[in-house]
Design brief:
The chain is of the alpha+beta class. The protein has one domain. The chain has a 4-stranded antiparallel beta sheet, sandwiched between helices.
Length: 97
């Protein structure tokens, strides 16, 4: 399942982020969190996180460091993932709403 998840996230990231795309993975308590950062078509700095079929993007101010972007993405992802898990929305290994 993780291979399909990663392929989908990369496709979403490449459609959203037009230049300077950087991909990375962070191990979370409930599984891997995939991160993508770069500039969108409007030259706005964006970050995207993905986990078990769920993805979310966030825009950042110019000049925000990559470390701050990744920290914000992981914080946002961890909070959302924990809420999904508490409500049983990750049953069966992927988003199940």
């Amino acid at each position: 399942m993780e291979d399909k998840e990663l392929i989908k996230l990369e496709r979403v990231a490449r459609n959203l982020i037009n230049s300077r795309l950087q991909l990375t993975v962070v191990e979370g308590d409930l599984g891997n969190i995939y991160l993508a950062t770069g500039l969108n078509a409007e030259r706005t700095l964006v970050g995207l996180w993905g986990h078990r079929g769920v993805a979310r993007d966030i825009e950042f101010k110019d000049g925000t460091s990559i470390e701050d972007i990744r920290a914000a993405l992981v914080t946002d992802a961890t909070g959302m993932i924990e809420l999904f898990h508490e409500r049983g929305l990750l049953d069966g290994g992927e988003f199940n709403a």
